[in-house]
Amino acid sequence: MTRAALLALLLLSSAQAAALIHLRPSLNAAGIITHGPRTLKTGQPKQVALTFDADMTPGMESELRSGKVRSFDNETVVQALEAANVPATFFLTGMWAQVYPASALALAKHPSFEIEDHSYDHPGFSQPCYGLASIADAQKSADIGRSQRAIQTATGTTPQYFRFPGGCASESDVQKVEAAGLTVVHWDVIGGDANQKSPAVIVSDVLSRVKSGSIVVLHVSGGHAPETGVALPAIIKGLRAEGYQLVTLKTLLGRP
Ligand SMILES: [Zn+2]
């Protein structure tokens, strides 16, 4: 920064400086986007992006095969979004796209939905990571490439954003994702739908945590998050009542 630019910045009021900073998506220390702009341009409605992760691991696939879990594809999520005409973003694991190719294709073809990448089989890139399987450093770039290819094969779409399973990542993991041409996007609002049997708790978790520019993480993989679709109508109604416009991630981040 030049001396003149530094002086100009110092002359800004703190409110002006904050507005300049917050008109951009927020990056955390590791360079990961966690939410969109907090500050609005004049006349712009507050925006929130609902995002849904489609998890799949080798362990989950065996639960399907053994019949322990009926499905890790939650159609009620898509039905609730469609019924309320809500745009949304789906982070698919490559393995989920292979297990549910028809659902993955339907999401990709939907005019209001975006498809992004959530790793191939949902390992914890940095450890510990909520019991997720570890992955060797040497395998990480291969996992990212394998996931991109699996999603491309199933949907014809190439994701631009990547979300680490469990949000677990080191700076070198972020660099590996960026080297693959992807931008890392996490969240600032945990919807709390994993292993949650009460839709009311999911609704209150989202509505109490959301702010202008928030990225909400929920799940479309059913099974371990069975009540997401049940909670969605009240989440959508509550957000709209608070004046939020529901948008895709690319719209929230100003990259439609
Ligand atoms: Zn996940």
Overview of the molecule:
The chain is an alpha/beta fold and 256 residues long. It has one domain: TIM Barrel (Alpha-Beta Barrel). The chain is 42% helix and 15% strand. Strands 3, 4, 5, 8, 9 and 10 form a 6-stranded parallel sheet that branches. Strands 1-2 form a two-stranded antiparallel ribbon. Strands 6-7 form a two-stranded parallel ribbon. Helix 9 (199-209) runs parallel beside helix 10 (228-241). The longest helix is centred in the middle third of the chain and has 19 residues, at 137-155. The radius of gyration is 19 Å and the shape is globular. Mean pLDDT is 90; it is low at 1-23. It binds zinc ion. Zinc ion binds at residues 53, 55, 118, 122, 165. GO terms for molecular function: hydrolase activity, acting on carbon-nitrogen (but not peptide) bonds. Pfam families: Polysacc_deac_1. This is Polysaccharide deacetylase.
